Amino acid sequence: MKTLLRTLLHLALIVWLGAEIFFPIVAAITFDTLRPDTHTAGMIVGQLLRILNNMGLASGALALIAVAPAWKLFKPRALLAPTVLLIAMIGLTVYSQFVIIPAMERHRIATGGTINSVDVTNPNRADFEKLHRRSVNVEGAILLLGLVAVVFVARAESSRI
Fold first, then answer.
1. For the chain, which residues make up each domain, given as ranges?
2. What pLDDT score was predicted for residue 70?
3. Which of 25, 22, 101, 93 is CA-nearest to residue 58?
């Protein structure tokens, strides 16, 4: 049972963090490849971000399911930090998926559908850009928290009862 739980927890973290690491690479290549058509690139990257967030939510749920019974296998204090970090990662992912992305989409539509077609002083474009920066920061925070969670999971495993 212990091996199964550890495997599920590790797999969930690997999938989530791997996607978080790979996403900016895919986004950069998409924008570079479609350079003149930033609207299409943005639509592709936006859809990929939704997929990334769904993967994160599924991985986060799996990780929490795997870590919950592990409280009986390891010292409970050793699992407190990774559990809190997982909950924070899930919270940030929910914020990105259900607050930031829909708000960005509303601002994009309000500009006529193409952000780059309006002046940078346009309030909808300014808000879109602000939300975009926030989205980048949120994804970076998720990655950082995930890496710290991996360290704490490894530490919990080395401090077994």
1. 2-158
2. 64
3. 93
pTM, two decimal places? 0.92
∠ Cα 62 66 71 (to 5°):
145
pLDDT of res. 161: 47
Are the C-beta atoms of residues 82 and 149 closer than 8 Å to each other? yes
Count CB neighbours of 122 within 10 A: 16
Nearest to 79 by CA among 88, 91, 93, 69: 69
As a residue count, the chain comes to 161
d(CA 38, CA 32) in angstroms, rounded, equals 9
Q: What's the pLDDT at 73?
A: 64
